Amino acid sequence: MDELLKQTPLCGRHEALRALMSPFGGWNMPIQYEGIIAEHAWCRAKASLFDICHMGEFLFEGDFAAGGLEDVLTFSVATIPVGRSRYGFLLNESGGIIDDLIVFRLAPDKAMIVVNAATAPKDFAVINARLKGGAFTDISAQTGKLDIQGPLSRDVMVAAFGAEIAAIPYFRFTTMNILGVEAIVSRTGYTGELGYEIFIPSDKVVELWDQLLLDERVKPAGLGARDVLRLEVGYSLYGSDIDEATTPLEAGLEGFVDLSKNFVGKEALLRQKEQGVARRKVAFEVNSRRSPRHHYELCFSGEGVGTVTSGVFSPMLGRGIGLGFVRPDLASIGTPLTIIHERVSMEAAVCELPFYRGGSLRS
Amino acid sequence: MSIYFTKEHEWVKVKEGIGAVGISEHAAHELGDITFVELPVMGKVVKQFDMLGAIESVKAASDIYSPVSGKVVKINEALNDAPEIVNESAEDAGWLAWIEIADEAELKNLMTREQYDEYLKTV
């Protein structure tokens, strides 16, 4: 194993479960335990537990406006009610996405920012440089994170930690005592299923993992299943579907950008909005079980018009699905696309998101 | 029935001039969950080690090469709707095609089970 790879506190647990481990965002992470398809099916039917300790968490304490946090992201932090969270972006001056993230409003003067693992060091430096006051701390090392996702996850959490969890609506969280320490239980996730993200001091993560797995409705799932689950509901993966060369307008994510407020990158987005985007994200379904994959070429009438950024075989749809970027005039629903890679070619059509609509997300 | 293996992890079981062809249990395990099998067309004539078809898994796409020269006389159509059979039974029910073997002397270019097991220790 690469010595430079970071390990989560659960590394020993993954090895004991004979997980296939692989580098992800600078971390040695479990890709699969029993198998990606079986883990995917379990999450859609029962409840799956994911080690997400690799993700980064930052804490801002102070006045959001005076401290400058209000002008750092594509959405207002000050208007998030305490106990709720909001998704959006950290942009560069050109409007490119440095990261996608979620802000949790912990208190009137306190917010937690949850970011991707690979981008965490850069995110921290960028946000820190843009702040004018307040206290800004990287709490990633002392913060553990487990996701429990699936239609039975509420029942499992209530059985383990009490009925107050049943009252948490989508995109809200509660701070509560778990295993004798203060933890944040948030009704968010990355699978399209009902589920929770649990933030707990990292020295308690192993105990929480073990306790949740005692419930026979719960099985561990790796990043392989997580990727299939998120793509079936059309969520973007940072580094594949969005990056610093991609703006939220190109990626069809303008719903998470508030142009009525100030933020770094806004001028570029306004210009792009006026001039029109050169490429646009599309979702597409293949007409067979073939999988499109990252970097495959998208063609229309024999001409290369774009690139696949994510693709998998969808077990729920029984066919290949993917995301990619094409010329904007080819982004309308139903546009036929041919996906080419070496001698392989597959027929696809632009479709609406999400691919899979049967999830328990809002139930 | 004798079974022979290629370095690319295909197998062929030979009986009365017909070779049943598939991928090894080792290869199926390495690929992980198999989601699509591209079978050869009936009647296709292949040379030894030519491309015969392809297998896609959640993790990767990989070409399948023919262990023998000959003509494809039967294909495992069950794999069209249930490619996971290859994971469940790579060296039996997960066969891909039957090939009418053109030249059994080519089998000397392949490995026996014992040789293949030794080979797996080196890859």
TrEMBL record, chain A:
Domain GCVT N-terminal: from-to ranges: 12-261
Cellular component GO terms held in the UniProt record: cytosol; glycine cleavage complex
Signal peptide region: none
Family per record: Belongs to the GcvT family.
Enzyme class at the top of the EC tree: transferase
Listed Pfam families: GCV_T, GCV_T_C
Name of this protein: aminomethyltransferase
Listed GO biological process terms: glycine catabolic process; methylation
Molecular function GO labels: aminomethyltransferase activity; methyltransferase activity; transaminase activity
InterPro entries: GcvT, GcvT/YgfZ/DmdA, GcvT/YgfZ_C, GcvT_C, GCVT_N, TrmE/GcvT-like
Record's keyword terms, sorted: Aminotransferase, Methyltransferase, Transferase
Catalysed transformations (reactions): N(6)-[(R)-S(8)-aminomethyldihydrolipoyl]-L-lysyl-[protein] + (6S)-5,6,7,8-tetrahydrofolate = N(6)-[(R)-dihydrolipoyl]-L-lysyl-[protein] + (6R)-5,10-methylene-5,6,7,8-tetrahydrofolate + NH4(+)
UniProtKB/TrEMBL annotation, chain B:
Signal peptide coordinates: none
Domain Lipoyl-binding: 18-100
Gene3D superfamilies listed in its UniProt record: 2.40.50.100
UniProt KW Electron transport keyword: no
InterPro entries assigned to the protein according to its UniProt record, in alphabetical order: Biotin_lipoyl, GCV_H, GCV_H/Fam206, GCV_H_sub, Single_hybrid_motif
Residues recorded as bearing N6-lipoyllysine in the entry: 59
Co-factor(s): (R)-lipoate
GO CC terms of this entry: cytosol; glycine cleavage complex
Primary role: The glycine cleavage system catalyzes the degradation of glycine. The H protein shuttles the methylamine group of glycine from the P protein to the T protein.
Entry's cofactor comment: Binds 1 lipoyl cofactor covalently.
Keywords: Lipoyl
Protein's UniProt name: Glycine cleavage system H protein
Record GO biological process: glycine decarboxylation via glycine cleavage system; protein lipoylation
UniProt record similarity statement: Belongs to the GcvH family.
Subunit comment: The glycine cleavage system is composed of four proteins: P, T, L and H.
CDD domains linked: GCS_H
